[in-house]
Amino acid sequence: MTLRPTPLSDELFDYLVAQGSSPDAVQAELIAETATLGHEARLQISPDEGTFLTLLTKLMGARTALEVGTFTGYSALAIVRGLAAGGRLTCCDISEEWTRIARRYWDAAGVSEQIDLRIGPALDTLRSLPAEPAYDLAFIDADYLNYTAYWEEVVPRVRSGGAILVDNVLYHARVIDPDDTADTTQAVRELNERIRTDDRVEATMIAIADGLTLARKK
Ligand SMILES: C[S@@+](CC[C@H](N)C(=O)[O-])C[C@H]1O[C@@H](n2cnc3c(N)ncnc32)[C@H](O)[C@@H]1O
After folding, report:
1. Which of 61, 92, 177, 193 could form a disulfide with 125 if both were Cys (CB 3.0 to 4.6 A apart)?
2. Residues 6 or more apart in contact with residue 35 via CB below 8 angstroms
3. Computed from CA positions of residues 216, 61, 106, 50, in that sequence, does the dihedral angle turn out positive or negative?
C-alpha cells in the first residue's frame, strides 16, 4: 500500500508553509503587489513551491535555467536566488504588462543582469534557442494547450542529469474527472502521459500546490 500524503487542513497548510524558509523582503513585496491584481494573482506559484524551487536549484548547483511562464516574476526570482554565482535564467512570456512588474522586482532584488526575458509566444522563443543541452534546470508553467509542445522543446535543451519541473499537473483534480473533456484538461493529461512514457527522463509528481512534476533527464 502506498502511504498517502497527510490531508492538509487550512491550519496544517499554514503550519507547513511557516516551517519553511520565508520569502525574502523583495519576494514578499512582489507577492503583495501581485495579490492586488485580483483573480489573476492565482497564476503565481505558492511560497512553499517558491522555496522548493530555490532549494532544488541550489542543491543542484545549477548555473543555467529556463522558465516558460514568468507572469510577475516570482518563480523566476525563486530560481535565480538559487543559481550559483554568475548563473543565468532565460524567461519566456508573452505579456509585456505582467513582466513589467517582474522587471521592477528583479531590479529591486539586484538580479536583472542575470535574467534574459524573451517576450513572445514561448514556443517560438524555445525553438529559437540552440537545440543543445545547455540548461541545468527548466520550469514549465504557462498555457496548458502548449504543455506537451513545451516539453518536447525543453527536454533536448536540458543536460543529462538536469531537472525539468512542470506546474499544475493535477489541474485542480480535473485530470481524473472522466466527465471533464475540456481542451485544457486533455492537454494536461496528455503531457502527464507523455512524461510517464518518456524514456529520456525519470519522474515523480510531488503533491505541492496544484501538483508539480519533477523529472530528471537521464
Ligand atoms: C501561470 S502564469 C506563470 C506564473 C509564474 N511562473 C509565477 O510563479 O509567477 C502563466 C504565464 O504564461 C504566460 N503565457 C500564456 N501563454 C503564453 C504563450 N503562448 N507564450 C508565452 N507565455 C505565455 C502568461 O502571460 C502568464 O504570465
Report:
1. 92
2. 41
3. positive
Pocket test for ligand 1, best of 118, 141, 148 (most atoms within 8 A of CB): 141
Q: DSSP class of residue 44?
A: S
61-102: per-residue pLDDT in tens? 999 999 999 999 999 999 999 999 999 999 999 999 999 999
Return d(Cα 74, Cα 169) in angstroms, integer: 19
Pocket test for ligand 1, best of 77, 95, 106 (most atoms within 8 A of CB): 95
- The three grid cell numbers given for residue 88, joined into one nine-digit string: 543565468
Q: Domains, the chain, ranges and CATH?
A: 10-217 (3.40.50.150)
Q: Is residue 119 within 8 Å of 94, Cβ to Cβ?
A: yes
pTM above 0.85, yes or no: yes
User: Which residue is it, cell 506537451?
Assistant: 148
